[in-house]
């Protein structure tokens, strides 16, 4: 299994347009995203996001958040843990939260998921993106399944 970890942020005239622009900023705005749950194989390799064919159906774990409140700090996080047998992904988000605390919470959640499965973590990654809203803003963090 191969995955890419991406994130993006943007503004737009509506929440939908801000979300679309954030997806474009992350490099996944021209594909059809299929949200899946949070499991990876143990052999998962992390790659750079390749150029994706427009209109392609692409599986992903997606954390996104939009706000219309000027000055809000919006944050999206994905945490990835990979062991020999399998891997897990956690998505998390928050408005006007401490970024480091949200990342730590995400790390704790993914470690818990691995622990209850009895799998030792070999690789742990956290992707975080934040944005201070000017008018209508969006953030996205995603694990994109490449195969």
What features would you describe in this structure?
- The chain has 147 residues and is of the alpha+beta class.
- The protein has one domain (2-145): Pyruvoyl-Dependent Histidine Decarboxylase, subunit B (Pyruvoyl-Dependent Histidine Decarboxylase, Chain B).
- Helix content is 20%, strand content 47%.
- The protein is built from 2 helices and 9 strands, in the order E-H-E-E-E-E-E-E-H-E-E.
- It has a 5-stranded mixed β-sheet with strand order 2-5-9-1-4. Strands 3-7-6-8 form a 4-stranded antiparallel β-sheet, covered by helices on one side.
Condensed summary:
The chain has 147 residues and is an alpha+beta fold.
Low-confidence regions: none
| CATH level 1 name | Alpha Beta
Structural class category? alpha+beta
Can you count the helices?
A: 2
In terms of DSSP E residues, the strand content is over 45%
Tell me the strand order in the biggest sheet.
2-5-9-1-4
Q: Provide the succession of SSEs.
A: EHEEEEEEHEE
First and last CA, distance: 6 Å
What is the CATH third-level topology name?
Pyruvoyl-Dependent Histidine Decarboxylase, Chain B
CATH architecture group name:
3-Layer(bba) Sandwich
> What general form does the structure show?
flat
Biggest beta-sheet profile: 5 strands, mixed
Please tell me the overall pLDDT.
Answer: 97
**Helical fraction:** 10-25%
Radius of gyration using CA atoms only: 15 Å
Q: What is the strand tally?
A: 9
Number of self-contained structural domains: 1
């Amino acid at each position: 299994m191969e995955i890419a970890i991406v994130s993006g942020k943007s503004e737009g005239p509506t929440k939908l347009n801000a979300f679309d622009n954030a997806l474009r900023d992350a490099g996944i705005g021209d594909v059809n995203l299929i949200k899946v749950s949070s499991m990876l194989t143990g052999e998962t390799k992390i790659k750079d996001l390749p150029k994706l064919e427009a209109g392609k159906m692409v599986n992903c774990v997606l954390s996104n958040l939009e706000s219309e409140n000027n000055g809000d700090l919006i944050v999206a996080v994905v945490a990835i843990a990979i062991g020999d047998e399998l891997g897990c992904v956690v998505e998390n988000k928050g408005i006007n939260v401490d970024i480091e605390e949200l990342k730590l919470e995400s790390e704790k959640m993914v470690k818990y998921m691995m622990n209850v499965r009895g799998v030792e973590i070999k690789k742990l990654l956290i992707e975080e993106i934040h944005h201070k809203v000017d008018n209508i803003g969006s953030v996205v963090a995603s694990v994109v399944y490449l195969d």
